[in-house]
Amino acid sequence: MRTFFILLVLVNVGVFALGQGWFGQARSEAGRSAASKLQTQLNVESAKFGPGQLQAQ
């Protein structure tokens, strides 16, 4: 039972490491470049806050 638990923990750590990109580029990051991550911009002026409501233009 102890061996099964240790094996389960190691598999979980391995899957976590794979998802975080410790063994190379993560699958969720495929097709993304570093420049696209840096160019994320928020348009603060597009949201107007009124009394008790949120209006987006």
Give an overview of the whole structure.
This protein has about 55 residues and is of the alpha+beta class. It has one domain. It contains two helices and two strands; from the N terminus they run ααββ. It has a two-stranded antiparallel ribbon with strand order 1-2. The longest helix is centred in the N-terminal third of the chain and has 19 residues, at about 1-20. The radius of gyration is 21 Å and the shape is elongated. About 0% of the residues are buried. The model has no long low-confidence stretch (mean pLDDT about 75).
Question: What's the gist of this structure?
Answer:
The protein is an alpha+beta fold and 57 residues long.
Strand order of the largest sheet: 1-2
Low-pLDDT segments? none
The sequence of SSEs as H and E is HHEE
Shape summary: elongated
Task: Give the overall average pLDDT.
Answer: 75
Number of strands: 2
List the defining traits of the structure above:
57 residues; alpha+beta
